[in-house]
Amino acid sequence: MIDAHHPSLTSVYAADPARYDNMIYRRCGKSGVQLPILTLGLWHNFDGYKSFETDRAMIRYAFDHGITHFDIANNYGPPYGAAERVFGQIYEQDLKPYRDELFISTKAGYDMWPGPYGDYGSKKYLVASLNQSLKRMGLDYVDVFYHHRPDPETPLEETMGALDFLVRQGKALYVGISNYPADLTKKAAEILRGLGTPCLIHQPSYSILNRWTETDHLFDITAEYGMGTIVFAPLQHGLLSSRYLNGIPEGSRASLDRHLKKDLITDESIGYIRQLNSIAIERGQTLSQMALAWVLKDNRVTSALFGASNVEQIAENLRVMENLSFTTEELQEIDAVANPFMEFLKRHS
C-alpha cells in the first residue's frame, strides 16, 4: 500500500489535509509565486486511450502530496487536445473546489490544427489556442501560458505582444516561454518587461545528459531578468531511470520508438545507466530520484517537471526530497560517467 490516504476513485474527493506538510516550495524568480520543486506533466500518459481512472488517481495522489503545479500543452495527447480534455474532466469531478490552490499551465507553439493559423507564434494562433484550451479544461483562466518554441518567421514583438494581450484579457495570470535559447530569452524578457507583463518562467530541457542550458548560460539570463525555470525531461525520457537497466521493456518509450530511439539502448548505454544507478544506490536513492535531485541542486531551477504512468512512479519521485544535496565527490563520479554517455548520445543522434 503506497499511502494510507488513498480514497476510492468512486468516492467524493477530499484533498488530504496534510498535503502541504512535506512538499518543498521554491520562489519562482523574483515573483510572488512559489512552486513545488516537482511538477506533474500531463503529456503522453494523459490521452484519449489509456485508463481515465489511472490518470485521475495520479492527479489526486500528486495534489494530496503537495504537487500543486500541473503542466499541459494544447497538443498533448494524442490526439491533440486530449490531455487538456482529460484534465478538464478530472478538474470538474475532483479539483474544482481547490482551484485557488492549483497552478495550471498550458502552452501553444507547435502544430495544432490545419492551415496557416495553427502553428508557431502569431497573435492569431496564440489567442485562438488559449481560448480553445480554456474550453477543453473548463477554466476561466490559466495561471501561466507559455509560448512553446521560438518562431523564426513571426516578429518576437508580435508573439510577446500576444502573451501580454492575453494577460490583460484575464485569460492568463502570468506568461512564460519554452525552448528559447539564451539570446532570444533575453530579447523576449526585455519586450515583455517593456509591455508591463514580465516573463514569469522559462521551461527548458535539462538533465544529467543534456546540459545545453549550462553552455548557453541560460540560467544566468533567467536570473538576471528575475525569471524562474522549470526544467523538462530531467529523466531523459526514461534513460535516467531503472527502466532500461536490463534492456527494453515492453510498452516503454524505446519499445514504441517514441521520443527515445530503440538504437540508443545498447550494451554500451546500458553499461552507463548501470554505473549511474550504482552511484544512486550509494546515495540511498533510485536513479530517477538522483536525476531529479541533480537538476534541483541549482537553486535557479524552481521545479523539475516529470511525467508518470502510474501512482507508484509519483510516489518514487516524491522521495527525492529525502536527499537533495551532493558531495563534490559524487558530482565528479556522475560527470565521469555522464561525459562519455553524452558523447555516445551525440554519435547516435
How would you characterize the overall build of this protein?
This protein is of the alpha/beta class. It has one domain (25-238, 290-324): NADP-dependent oxidoreductase domain (TIM Barrel). Helix content is 40%, strand content 13%. It contains twelve helices and ten strands. It has helices spanning 52-64, 82-95, 123-137, 156-168, 182-195, 212-215, 218-224, 253-256, 267-282, 287-296, 311-318, 328-347; strands at 25-27, 34-36, 38-41, 69-71, 103-108, 142-147, 172-178, 199-203, 228-231, 303-306. The strands form two sheets. It has an eight-stranded parallel β-barrel, surrounded by six helices. Strands 1-2 form a two-stranded antiparallel sheet. Strand 7, helix 5 and strand 8 (199-203) form a beta-alpha-beta unit. Helix 3 runs parallel beside helix 4 (156-168), helix 4 (156-168) packs across helix 5 and helix 5 packs parallel to helix 7. The longest helix is centred in the last third of the chain and has 20 residues, at 328-347. The chain is globular, with a radius of gyration of 20 Å. Mean pLDDT is 93; it is low at 1-6.
